[in-house]
């Protein structure tokens, strides 16, 4: 008679133990193979304290500010009938109802990008966000300086101080120094039309987006006080 010995695969046993504990087996997560630790989303409060609170925390109780890409379980506690928890981001759009309370669980796949959560009834005061993976920062906004006055002078300069003759299309931050009470700075063309007052002096900062074409600048009080540059695609 031969005696048969049952051999239990160690990884299978570990998977069972992790499942009973409500965790994912290391290396068995979703996108990117991230360990699936539960997150806790809370909006409102079971008491009168912090009734306008909203938060997303990890399994240690720390506020979530960044996650690795992967699959996550979100345990949502919506304690209030005047709030909800609305989570959006790349590939994710989940929300509880404003009119009721709710305890629910979401499973979400997190990828590279920025995720935001708000109470839709109070989005300006109840909100938060976190990033995931590698987030590419937007290119820095290029800077220009414009000046009219003193006396009869007007110019647009690059960040190096040179007179602007040609620019690439795109977004710019233009600091306008109006040093005259008899002239103003009027910028037009390339999808932009902005100006200062003729009888006022001061410094303003405009964020402008130029399209391809010719852009002119002048004083509306003295039309011969003018200049121009070309914006290329």
Explain the overall architecture.
By secondary structure, the protein is mainly β. It has two domains: 10-132, Immunoglobulin-like (Sandwich), CATH 2.60.40; 142-232, Immunoglobulin-like, CATH 2.60.40. Helix content is 5%, strand content 44%. The chain has one helix and 18 strands. Strands 3-9-8-5-6 form a five-stranded mixed beta sheet, with no helix packed on it. The chain has a five-stranded mixed beta sheet with strand order 12-18-17-14-15, with no helix packed on it. It has a four-stranded mixed beta sheet with strand order 2-1-4-7, with no helix packed on it.
Itemize the secondary structure elements and their pairings.
Blueprint: H1 10-21, E1 39-43, E2 54-57, E3 66-67, E4 70-78, E5 86-89, E6 92-95, E7 102-110, E8 113-118, E9 127-132, E10 142-148, E11 154-158, E12 166-168, E13 170-178, E14 186-189, E15 192-195, E16 202-210, E17 213-218, E18 226-232
Parallel strand pairs: 1-4, 3-9, 10-13, 12-18
Antiparallel strand pairs: 1-2, 4-7, 5-6, 5-8, 8-9, 10-11, 13-16, 14-15, 14-17, 17-18
């Amino acid at each position: 008679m031969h005696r048969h010995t049952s051999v239990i695969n160690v990884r299978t046993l570990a998977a069972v133990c992790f499942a009973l504990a409500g965790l994912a087996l290391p290396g068995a997560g979703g996108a990117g193979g991230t360990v699936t630790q539960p997150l806790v989303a809370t909006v409102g409060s079971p008491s009168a304290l912090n009734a306008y609170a909203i938060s997303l925390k990890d399994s240690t109780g720390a506020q979530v500010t960044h996650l690795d890409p992967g699959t996550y379980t979100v345990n949502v506690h919506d304690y209030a009938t005047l709030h909800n928890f609305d989570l959006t981001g790349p590939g994710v759009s989940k929300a509880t109802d404003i009119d009721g309370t709710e305890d629910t669980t979401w499973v979400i796949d997190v990828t590279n990008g920025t995720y935001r959560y708000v109470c839709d009834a109070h989005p300006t005061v109840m909100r938060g966000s976190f990033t995931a993976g590698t987030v590419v920062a937007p290119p820095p906004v290029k800077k220009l300086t414009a000046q009219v006055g003193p006396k009869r002078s007007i110019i647009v300069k690059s960040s190096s101080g040179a007179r602007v003759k040609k620019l690439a299309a795109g977004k710019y931050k233009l600091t306008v120094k109006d040093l005259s009470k008899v002239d103003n700075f009027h910028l037009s063309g390339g999808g932009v039309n902005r100006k200062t007052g003729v009888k006022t002096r001061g410094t303003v900062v405009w964020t402008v987006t130029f399209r391809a074409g010719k852009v002119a600048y002048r004083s509306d009080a003295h039309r011969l006080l003018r200049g121009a540059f070309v914006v290329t695609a």
